[in-house]
Amino acid sequence: MSNASLLALASRAGLSAEWNDYRGVPQTVSDEVLTALLAAMGIDAEGEEARRDALARLEAEAAQPPAMIVARAGQRVEIAGPGPAELHFETGGSQTLRLRRQGERISFRVPRQLGYHRLALDGAAVTLAVCPPRALRVRDIAEGRRLWGLAVQIYALNGGGPFGDFGDLGRFSAKAAGLGADAVAVSPVHALFAADPGRYGPYGPSTRLFLNPLYARAEAPGETGEDELIDWAPAAAARLAALRRAYDVFHGSGEDRADFDAFVRAGGDLLLAHARFEALDARFRPQGLHIWRDWPNGYADAGSPAVQALSSGDPEVEFHLFAQWRADADLGAAQAAARDAGMVIGLIADMAVGMDGWGSHAWSRPEDVLVGVSVGAPPDLLGPDGQSWGLTTFSPTALRRTGYAPFLATLRASMRRAGGVRIDHAIGLQRLWVTPEGRPASDGAYLAYPRDDLLNLIALESHRHGAVVIGEDLGTVPEGFREASTAAGMAGMRVLWFERGRDGGFSSPRTWGRDAVAMTTTHDLPTISGWWRGRDIDWRTQIHPGGDEAGARAERATDRRRLWRAMMRSGAAEGAEPGVEQGADAVLPALLHVAGSACDLAILPIEDALGEVEQPNLPGTTTEHPNWRRRLPRGEGLDQPAVAARLAAVDAKRKRL
To answer: Is 235 within 8 Å of 163 (Cβ atoms)?
Structure first.
């Protein structure tokens, strides 16, 4: 049996010592795992005295007003404090709040003026974030229309270079707008590791605060977009070399630096720290020092004199500042191109669930994150060993202590150049499965997060940026999450393959509900044509031989019949079911089936518009499948008659709803 003081401390810190697995069977977290996870949160749980002291500190902190009070306009808030309370509004002016006192606590009605205001409490000051009841929704900006858009991997855009960039994204978005699309959704464009061009998976960023400079427009002669697969290491090296040439011209030309200097000032210490990290990583990685913990001479500490001596004027540091400046401007131009072409939303960015623990953010702001912890998922039917994604994320205690500063900075970075944002693994706003470093993914625990505060802040930032919000709510969803996120204006995801009844049959898209985004598939799932032909089964059999291939193919045959019947009922299909090798004949009916959903927005991957068989990413693989490498046909195929006809039919279907 677990130690009672350890259980009390873990509970106060937000760790669940017990949880139910996917079968509903209760599971218990070991004392060893709880102790390791508490240590990652900066809480010493080694010994009875340490646990008692730590619990007292956490309870004392909880009794004090937080650094930021998050509330909806008109809500009544109760906090500790004697009063009086003076509210100083973000835009100027102040108001003395009328307080109710009960013992050592006070309560007040939150004013209607949205924003981040300063609340003066008996000589102390906290931030009061006054939030709207919900985020900006598609229906708030769509003027009664049912919108649709395309999803595309930026690197896959084929404008003739080694891989796609933000310039290609702007061109693609304008062309899609001409076909009736109102949005283009992309995978994360967070900064990776410039010194390690072989790392290209978009969901393992160094930091989510800044951009992948490889997507900045820069002429990279040599490689062209003729091969089906991108060879990332030489392609990325060529793009970086082109950026360095552009920087050399900028640095030596004497041209007006006003815009660049303003960008650097606005980025402040966070941007400078990221540029320093990139410069140091480029210095030490060739020496075999691949993680910052091993950097010599104090460089592992971002606050050390050695690091602080690296000014923005250092040529290597300034190059990385320049690369961020160029990338930011080019992404802004892509969003402008989408909106100028008539898109209601434009770009929908993607905010990854975490960041690499050996990346820029963890180095520069270690106090923000869970050190020595990997985010993932517990064992389930599809992953009996659990999942460990090799990412860290924010500590909930750090969020409270800093007034949600790192979360807000990340959210603002994602919304800065977009008309919407998709939050990856959005259920992490309520709880995350975390595993101590070096342990199997099954040896983890659920860590609670302040869901309501985070949803309210998302709503406030959504209105301030004019951005709609989508939450990836797939998988094992905790109780109450979908209800709370929907009420907060976050659209869920309704993916064709998962929308089924208890009998296994596919549900009518009319029942999917307005407050979600309809999708045929995602980058992690089979395309329509690939699913129909069983291409995902081919890959699983090739990578993991010995499974029940015959059973999987028989089940897929049953599902094809179920889907065809559902598409006939919805009016999207007619006639006989296509054969297994005729996946192309199922593409248009599936697109129309999803386009006929009640959802305010439908997003169709470009691979489905093209009728492609292969998917961009196969989860659980690294080298076994060419993840994040597939290049689209030259010009992306939007001018092909068959593709244009499919999208015209989708557009007409959405307009009739």
So the answer is: yes
| Residue at token pair 């003026």 | 113
Alpha-carbon span 62 to 656, nearest angstrom = 53
Model pTM above 0.85: yes
Per DSSP, 229 falls in state: B
- 3-state SS track over 539-569: HHHHHCCCCCHHHHHHHHHHHHHHHHHHHHH
- Rounded to whole angstroms, the Cα distance separating 303 from 366 reads 11
Look up residue 47 and give its two tokens.
Answer: 């010994």
Segment 613-627, tens digit of pLDDT = 999 999 888 889 999
Average pLDDT, consecutive stretches of 10 residues, N- to C-terminus, the chain (657 residues): 84 94 90 94 92 93 88 91 87 93 87 96 89 97 96 95 95 98 98 94 97 91 73 94 94 86 97 98 97 96 97 95 98 98 98 97 96 90 83 94 97 98 97 94 95 98 98 90 97 97 96 96 97 97 92 97 98 97 97 97 98 94 93 90 96 96
Q: Residue type for 100, please?
A: R
Locus of tokens 């730590």: 54
Which candidate, 423, 575, 430, 586, places its Cα nearest to that of 520? 586
The Cα–Cα gap between 442 and 383 comes to 10
Helix axes 549-569, 584-595, angle to 10 degrees: 50
The number of residues in the chain equals: 657
Do residues 184 and 151 touch, judged by C-beta distance below 8 A?
yes
Q: Which of 283, 276, 342, 345 is nearest to 313 (CA)?
A: 276
* 605 touches 150 (CB < 8 A): yes
Q: In what order do the strands lie in the sheet with 516-519?
A: 468-471, 420-423, 346-351, 183-186, 147-152, 601-605, 516-519, 492-495
**Torsion, CA 291, CA 294, CA 298, CA 301, rounded to 10:** 40
For 419, half-sphere exposure in the C-beta direction (CA atoms, 13 angstrom radius) is 25
Q: Do strands 147-152 and 601-605 pair parallel, antiparallel, or not at all (unpaired)?
A: parallel
pLDDT per residue as tens digits for the range 329-385: 999 999 999 999 999 999 999 999 999 999 999 999 999 999 899 999 998 876 788
The answer for residues whose C-beta is within 8 angstroms of residue 457's C-beta and 6 or more apart is: 70, 129, 131, 404, 407, 408, 411
Task: Find tokens 């693609």 and name the residue.
Answer: 172
- Tell me the β-bridge partners of 60: none
Radius of gyration of the chain from Cα atoms?
Answer: 26
